[in-house]
Amino acid sequence: MNGFRNNPGGFVANDYDSQLIESVTVRRNRLTNAVLFGANPHQRRWMDSVRLFLFSVALTAVVASVCVGISFVGNLLEEQRERQQQQQNSAIGIGIGIVHQPAGDPRSQASPWFPHRPLGD
């Protein structure tokens, strides 16, 4: 009736088949892990932790360098914008005629290299 006289609840063959398939799957997974990561499971766990730590350190370095690069480029753009505004303001001042021409002796005006000294000294 059921296939076996000693098994009143069902087929024993199905249980054996499922056990065999499960044991083959477990063995295959163990062999795959041994080939990929080595035979010692404790060393494998330790190496996984070290790899994770090194990966996180590398990722942190990349994120930090990206932040520094963004800050550097932003600072360069801001300085360039300030220079352009200064040039525009000086061009507007020259166009209107606001530039101050000192009268009298040219030696009395400040030196461009040493603004605190007059030219004649």
TrEMBL record:
| Keyword Transmembrane helix listed | yes
For this UniProt entry, which segments traverse the membrane? Answer: 52-77
Write out the entry's keywords from A to Z: Membrane, Transmembrane, Transmembrane helix
What are the start and end residues of every segment in region (Disordered)? 98-121
What protein am I looking at? Uncharacterized protein
| Lineage start | Bacteria, Bacillati, Actinomycetota, Actinomycetes, Micrococcales
